[in-house]
């Protein structure tokens, strides 16, 4: 067998680029962009003479999602590429692949800003790093360890790229403090905003101060020269072409998916259709035409409800499936909020609401009609839309260690195939749970889910790894998964919500031996709490099962169980010292202490099973085990009230 160099290529700054998003559409597009860059780099290596891909495997690369990946088939290309090249050619091939990724990025930015006449710079991104272990390093294991060590050292080297606000020119010596130059990007202040707006920017976006990198994810699906449109055109020419919606569902669309599914099940009811039509008309009146005609991507599980044809009912149903998520929530219908959201963006487009007293009254009437229609619709279907959604993030524990301890080309190839299979399982689970996946690479996952389905989806993700019979769960060091679920009000700024999910995942992975779950919430008023523990402990056989005892499993508004009163938290806090003393003197047995906690839980709307779960959760808390389960009680009270 001929000797080969081992190439290890990785992309840095991915999570930051994805998280720096003010809408789910930007978030989803950022994920697609970085996945497409990684895919292009892998393809560049694969196309080199004598070069063989290891991770992703050639078959996994062939199945990777394209640039127009949808929430139903999210990006799944790993951000790390491993390949074997002929001896002495590894550095050339790796350099060429990295340059190809940079060239692709520059071409996308250039196509986007073609009308500006110059290609804007995005210093420090994409950050493509690579290392090569020569054939002389030894066998595959030795090469792998050397490449890993070298790449880790490369990550610690920073180039300190930064954007110059104003270049020097005739009559000035530059503006190092940026007093007269472009303002920082409103979303990613590490870059400056572009003074020239790219073609495709809508009227209400033309006054936004965004960098070239942010404009790319904002208009990823809008520019005909960018890959998504090109792939859509090619796909439509194929026989039996299937429409794949571009974009990503909004947080409101995800939060209200179960409710809207129930409405769609009643679509043949004329009363239901009339109420939806009233919502549609009211929404149209408070939005400018340009925004009203923007069509969202549907939640994948609801897309099947769309009707074909062009009848009025079919068009109304299509609007409800794709754009109705925000409008079915009665709290949406607030005049001040709507004016701010749909009028006060500095757009020059003619608005439906003017500053005259007559039109102000017209707005009030429209808002009242919309709110009344939303309330009537909820009453008709005997269910309310939930303003909360959940973000699920998950990451395999110790995958790098597993790859190092099983450093064999064939084994790594099998791991790549297994990750692709886990990705498919995760993707299918998210769809069945009425969610939308941002990315699903097998080793990591981010998805948006309805509040009622989030914990079950987390359990699905864990079981997909646990059921692995060979590769990732093999002895002596099985790979597990850690996850975080954060419940968020749909009005919370998205970048803060994603940041919070990342913080909770970091807490879960800080647990000894990892294999942990963090669950938390952020309310509309920014009240927050969380609880962290391993999936299984000596006190709790299954953390998710214990938390699930607080979920309000019901279908109708009239059947909803009474939530655990927040007064429980007050009583636990005020009695903390006495309860702790009871626990200390009773030896943590079924005695006065547990009886008192059970009494408080039952008094405030819970039951004995929930009291037992709360006690076990408190004793298994990761950072501060406590017999008085304050952190778990906060999360439990939230779940009982809002996770429906």
Mean pLDDT over the full residue set: 85
Q: Separation of termini?
A: 60 Å
Work out the helicity level: 40-55%
Q: Structural class of the helices, strands and pairings?
A: alpha+beta
Shape: globular
Total count of helical runs of at least 4 residues = 25
Structure characteristics:
644 residues, alpha+beta, six-stranded mixed beta sheet, four-stranded antiparallel beta sheet, 25 helices, 10 strands
How do you describe this structure in short?
This protein is of the alpha+beta class. 46% of the residues lie in helices and 11% in strands. The longest helix is centred in the middle third of the chain and has 25 residues, at 357-381.
Textual characterization of the structure:
By secondary structure, the chain is of the alpha+beta class. Helix content is 46%, strand content 11%. The chain is built from 25 helices and 10 strands. The strands form 2 sheets. It has a 6-stranded mixed β-sheet with strand order 6-7-5-8-9-10, sandwiched between helices. A 4-stranded antiparallel β-sheet has the order 2-3-1-4, sandwiched between helices. The longest helix has 25 residues, at 357-381. The protein is globular and about 75 Å long.
What's the topology here?
Layout: E1 4-12, H1 14-19, H2 24-46, E2 52-55, H3 58-62, E3 80-86, H4 90-112, E4 127-133, H5 140-155, H6 212-218, H7 227-237, H8 251-255, H9 257-265, H10 270-286, H11 289-292, H12 300-303, H13 312-323, H14 335-342, H15 357-381, E5 388-396, H16 399-405, H17 409-432, E6 436-440, E7 444-450, H18 454-466, E8 481-489, H19 494-509, E9 516-522, E10 528-534, H20 543-548, H21 567-574, H22 576-586, H23 592-603, H24 608-619, H25 630-642
Parallel strand pairs: 8-9
Antiparallel strand pairs: 1-3, 1-4, 2-3, 5-7, 5-8, 6-7, 9-10
Helix pairs in contact: 2-4, 2-6, 10-13, 10-15, 17-18, 21-25, 22-23, 23-24
């Amino acid at each position: 067998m001929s000797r080969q160099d081992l190439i290890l290529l990785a992309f840095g700054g991915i999570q930051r680029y994805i998280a720096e998003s003010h809408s789910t559409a930007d978030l989803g597009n950022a994920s697609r962009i970085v996945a497409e860059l990684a895919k292009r780099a892998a393809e560049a290596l694969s196309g080199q003479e004598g070069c063989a891909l290891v991770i992703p495997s050639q078959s996994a690369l062939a199945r990777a999602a394209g640039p127009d990946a949808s929430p139903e088939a999210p990006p799944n290309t790993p951000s790390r590429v491993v390949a074997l090249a002929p001896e002495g050619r590894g550095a050339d091939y790796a350099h060429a692949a990295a340059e190809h990724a940079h060239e692709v990025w520059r071409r996308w930015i250039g196509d986007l800003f073609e009308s500006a006449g110059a290609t804007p710079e995005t210093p420090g991104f994409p950050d493509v790093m690579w290392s090569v272990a020569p054939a002389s390093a030894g066998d595959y294991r030795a090469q792998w360890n050397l490449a890993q060590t070298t790449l880790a050292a490369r990550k610690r080297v920073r180039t300190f790229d930064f954007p110059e606000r104003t270049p020097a020119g005739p009559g000035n010596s530059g503006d190092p403090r940026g007093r007269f130059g472009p303002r920082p990007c409103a979303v990613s202040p590490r870059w400056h905003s572009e003074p020239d707006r790219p073609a495709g920017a809508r009227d209400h976006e033309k006054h936004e101060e965004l960098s070239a990198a942010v404009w790319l994810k904002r208009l990823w699906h809008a520019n005909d020269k960018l890959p998504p449109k090109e792939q859509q055109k090619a796909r439509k020419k194929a026989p039996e072409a299937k429409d794949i919606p571009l974009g990503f569902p909004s947080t409101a669309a995800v939060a209200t998916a179960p409710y809207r599914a129930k409405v769609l099940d009643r679509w043949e009811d004329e009363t239901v259709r009339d109420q939806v039509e009233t919502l549609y008309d009211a929404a149209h009146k408070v939005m400018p035409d340009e925004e009203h005609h923007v069509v969202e991507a549907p939640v994948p599980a609801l897309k099947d409800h769309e009707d074909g044809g062009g009848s009025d009912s079919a068009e109304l149903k299509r609007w409800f499936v794709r754009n109705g998520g925000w409008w079915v929530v009665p709290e949406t219908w607030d005049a001040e909020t709507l004016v701010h959201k749909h009028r006060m963006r500095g757009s020059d487009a003619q608005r439906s609401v003017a500053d005259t007293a007559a039109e102000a009254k017209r707005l009030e009437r429209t808002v009242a009609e919309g709110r009344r229609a939303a309330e009537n619709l909820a009453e008709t279907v005997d269910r309310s839309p939930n303003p909360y959604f959940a973000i699920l993030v998950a990451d395999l524990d110790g995958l790098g260690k597993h790859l190092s301890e099983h450093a064999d080309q064939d084994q790594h190839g099998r791991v790549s195939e297994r990750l692709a299979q886990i990705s498919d399982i995760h993707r299918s689970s998210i769809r069945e749970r009425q969610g939308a996946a941002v990315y699903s690479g097998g080793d990591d996952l981010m998805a948006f889910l309805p509040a009622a389905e989030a914990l079950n989806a987390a359990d699905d993700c864990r079981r997909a790894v646990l059921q692995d019979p060979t590769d990732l769960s093999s002895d002596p060091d099985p790979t597990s998964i850690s996850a975080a679920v954060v419940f968020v009000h749909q009005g919370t700024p998205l970048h803060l919500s994603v940041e919070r999910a990342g913080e909770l995942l970091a807490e879960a992975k800080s647990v000894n031996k990892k294999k942990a779950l963090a669950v938390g919430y952020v309310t509309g008023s920014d009240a927050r709490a969380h609880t962290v523990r391993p999936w299984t402990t000596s006190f709790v056989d299954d953390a998710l099962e214990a938390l699930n005892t607080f979920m309000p499993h019901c279908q109708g508004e009239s059947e909803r169980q009474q939530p655990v009163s927040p007064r429980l938290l007050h009583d636990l806090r005020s009695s903390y010292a006495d309860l702790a003393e009871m626990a200390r003197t009773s030896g943590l047995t079924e005695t006065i202490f547990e009886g008192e906690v059970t009494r408080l839980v039952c008094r405030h709307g819970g039951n004995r099973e929930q009291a037992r779960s709360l006690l076990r959760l408190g004793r298994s808390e990761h950072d501060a085990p406590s017999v008085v389960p304050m952190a778990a009680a906060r999360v439990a009270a939230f779940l009982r009230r809002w996770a429906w």
